């Protein structure tokens, strides 16, 4: 891949997750799944790849009612996403 492009982030669904989370403090799993328009298993797999890379932090806060999974971009994930976007812009600009 070209300089600065991140193979982990570059996959379309993971790129969309990073773009979405970059504008929010955190998002609930169902919101991410619905934004992607995919099945639970697909969203879960993509989030797991990002989590394993250290780009996304998943949490399940205990509270009243059903336990929900929340995702947030980590500082490392935010940096990697910014570098990837800059590399895409440079590629497009030629």
CATH class: Mainly Alpha
Named CATH topology: Arc Repressor Mutant, subunit A
Give the topology string: H per helix, E per strand.
Answer: HHEHHEEH
User: What is the oligomer described by this structure?
Assistant: single chain
The side-by-side strand order for the widest beta sheet comes to 1-3-2
Strands, count: 3
Which word captures the global form? Answer: elongated
Q: Report the uncertain regions.
A: none
Radius of gyration computed on alpha carbons: 14 Å
Binned strand content: 5-15%
Which structural class do the helices and strands define? mainly alpha
CATH homology-level superfamily:
Winged helix-like DNA-binding domain superfamily/Winged helix DNA-binding domain
Domain Winged helix DNA-binding: 14-92
Protein name: MarR family transcriptional regulator
Pfam family, one: HTH_34
Organism: Arthrobacter psychrolactophilus
Quickly list its features.
94 residues, mainly alpha, Arc Repressor Mutant, subunit A, 3-stranded antiparallel sheet, 3 strands, 57% helix, 11% strand
Topology:
Blueprint: H1 7-10, H2 12-21, E1 27-28, H3 29-36, H4 40-52, E2 56-59, E3 70-73, H5 75-93
Antiparallel strand pairs: 1-3, 2-3
Explain what this protein looks like in three dimensions.
The chain is mostly helical. The protein has helices spanning 7-10, 12-21, 29-36, 40-52, 75-93; strands at residues 27-28, 56-59, 70-73. The protein has one domain: Arc Repressor Mutant, subunit A, CATH 1.10.10. Helices cover 57% and strands 11% of the residues. A 3-stranded antiparallel sheet has the order 1-3-2. The protein starts with 6 loop residues before the first helix and ends with a helix. The model has no long low-confidence stretch (mean pLDDT 94). It holds the Pfam family HTH_34. InterPro entries: WH-like_DNA-bd_sf, WH_DNA-bd_dom, WH_DNA-bd_sf.
